[in-house]
């Protein structure tokens, strides 16, 4: 099947990034959100990101215009009718996502793949609400979508080989490298990354070293581009806490318990960059 038309649900941080990479790759893309304001904000962010690519000479002005012309914003799910793949990238809330997936299945064709960009919800659980659960797959993009090379493909218990093959072809078409993993809490990359960050917070909590020294240690000793505490500030400490809670609850294993200091930081409203203060201060 030749890929031509993609649907994206949600015009937020991830949705407009996903729409952008589709459009740049020559695919028609419909981006749906709940309000005109959200759709317009998404399109504006996407256009701004394309402008930056033109400035960096990664795209010509004509290519930017062509890509923009391939993006259609809408508040109407009916616009997803002819999409071959619909990628759900709405707010991280299980009930909302289950509702959206059912709504999408009622509109798209019998062969369409329905994907979710969820970071923490079970793909097997999401697939189970569909009449054809075998058409569901996790497509976990990384932020910022236009810059990050990885696309984690998550196979739920029901995901068919055909669905997986189309998702892998899509990944290649938009210039991402697919890595296929089985459904499990946090999938693979966050399963490894987040407990490492949590461990750095334990180290800080135990007073073994300062935040600056912990980060310098991991940057210089492991060649990480950013220290784990600075990365936690970037991700958002509330997001970090909820991810660790998903692991702790999902596996029932105390090794995933969130550091007490992480919980306290969230209680204090020190959420990282977005609140101006986390392990570091941002003025
Ligand atoms: N931000 C990240 O770094 C990141 C990374 C990987 C995966 N994710 C996942 O991607 C998804 C989206 O995250 P985000 O950071 O883009 O969130 P966001 O808050 O920036 O955007 C979510 C968008 O979904 C829209 N929305 C809510 N209900 C909707 C509905 N019924 N129909 C259509 N749109 C609806 C909202 O209006 C909003 O514009 C989440 O599942 C998140 O876990 C996020």
Explain what the structure shows.
The protein is of the alpha/beta class and about 280 residues long. The protein has 2 domains: about 5-180, Rossmann fold; about 190-275, N-(1-d-carboxylethyl)-l-norvaline Dehydrogenase, domain 2 (Orthogonal Bundle), CATH 1.10.1040.10. The protein is about 45% helix and about 15% strand. It contains 11 helices and 8 strands. An 8-stranded mixed beta sheet has the order 3-2-1-4-5-6-7-8, with helices on both faces. The protein starts with a strand and ends in a 16-residue tail after the last helix.
In short:
The protein is α/β, with parallel strands linked by helices and 283 residues long. It is built from eleven helices and eight strands.
Secondary structure topology:
Layout: E1 5-9, H1 13-24, E2 28-32, H2 36-55, H3 61-69, E3 71-74, E4 85-88, H4 94-105, E5 113-116, H5 123-127, E6 136-141, E7 150-155, H6 161-173, E8 177-182, H7 189-205, H8 211-222, H9 228-235, H10 237-251, H11 260-267
Parallel strand pairs: 1-2, 1-4, 2-3, 4-5, 5-6, 7-8
Antiparallel strand pairs: 6-7
Helix pairs in contact: 1-2, 7-9, 7-10, 10-11
The structure holds nicotinamide-adenine-dinucleotide (NAD).
Tell me the total number of β-strands. 8
Percent helix range: 40-55%
CATH topology of the largest domain: Rossmann fold
Which CATH top level class of the largest domain fits? Alpha Beta
Helix and strand composition category: alpha/beta
Low-confidence stretches: none
- What's the architecture of the largest domain in CATH terms? 3-Layer(aba) Sandwich
């Amino acid at each position: 099947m030749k890929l031509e038309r993609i649907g994206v649900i949600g015009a937020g941080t991830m949705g407009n990034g996903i729409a952008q990479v589709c459009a740049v790759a020559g695919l028609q893309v419909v981006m749906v959100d709940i309000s005109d304001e959200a759709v317009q904000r998404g399109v504006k962010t996407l256009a701004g990101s394309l402008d930056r690519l033109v400035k960096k000479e990664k795209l010509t002005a004509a290519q930017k215009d062509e890509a923009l012309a391939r993006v259609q914003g809408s508040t109407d799910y009916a616009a997803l009718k002819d999409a071959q793949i619909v990628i759900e990238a709405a707010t991280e809330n299980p009930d909302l996502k289950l509702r959206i997936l059912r709504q999408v299945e009622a509109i798209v064709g019998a062969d369409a793949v329905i994907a979710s960009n969820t970071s923490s919800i079970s793909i097997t659980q999401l697939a189970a609400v569909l009449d054809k659960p075998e058409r569901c797959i996790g497509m976990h993009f990384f932020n910022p979508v236009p810059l990050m090379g990885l696309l984690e493909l998550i196979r739920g218990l029901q995901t068919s080989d055909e669905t997986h093959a189309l998702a892998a072809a899509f990944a290649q078409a938009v210039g991402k490298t697919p890595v296929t993993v089985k459904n499990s809490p946090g999938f693979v990359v966050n399963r490894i990354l987040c407990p490492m960050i949590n461990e750095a917070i334990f180290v800080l909590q135990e007073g073994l070293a300062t935040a600056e020294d912990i980060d310098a240690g991991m940057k210089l000793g492991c060649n990480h581009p950013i220290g784990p505490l600075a990365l936690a500030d970037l991700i958002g400490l509330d997001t970090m806490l909820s991810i660790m809670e998903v692991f702790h609850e999902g596996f029932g294993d105390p090794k995933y318990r969130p550091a007490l200091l992480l919980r306290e930081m969230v209680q204090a409203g020190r959420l990282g960059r977005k609140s101006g203060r986390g392990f570091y201060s941002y003025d």
